[in-house]
Amino acid sequence: xxxxxxxxxxxxxxxxxxxxxxxxxxxxxxxxxxxxxxxxxxxxxxxxxxxxxxxxxxxxxxxxxxxxxxxxxxxxxxxxxxxxxxxxxxxxxxxxxxxxxxxxxxxxxxxxxxxxxxxxxxxxxxxxxxxxxxxxxxxxxxxxxxxxxxxxxxxxxxxxxxxxxxxxxxxxx
Length: 173
Hints:
Elements: E1 6-8, H1 11-27, E2 33-38, H2 42-52, E3 56-67, E4 70-81, E5 89-97, H3 101-111, E6 117-125, E7 135-139, E8 143-145, H4 150-155, H5 165-168
Parallel strand pairs: 1-8, 2-3, 2-5, 5-6, 6-7
Antiparallel strand pairs: 3-4
């Protein structure tokens, strides 16, 4: 992947983006529970839970990418751990909506729990996505490197170790 097709974002950019998203979410009403899509939705979902004081969080692990930029044939549920969702307002959180297929799969799965409402949030969405989340901060056609995945990006060869020398020295390659 060429450097023109990659953007890395800082912790302060993530907090700013999530702050903007929080105001949008709360303008529609505070959710009762968050469902975080792992791995990408774990950190932003935890930050959102702190911002809006939501204690009930669930997790849905979806496998789709085989490595950075290399998708599998289709997404599938790998693991779930959910709080009660029946008659509750649920916000599903991920870092990026790329093809849209992962988010769509999770929405369909969570629908089976008879939630009162289901909303979706991602920090970034790709312009070609078949699914547009209810809330997103920005659209990008670049591969986004988040501050919580520096080692993964170094291991996959997407970014040069020297670009994140201080952090990447802790990465097991």
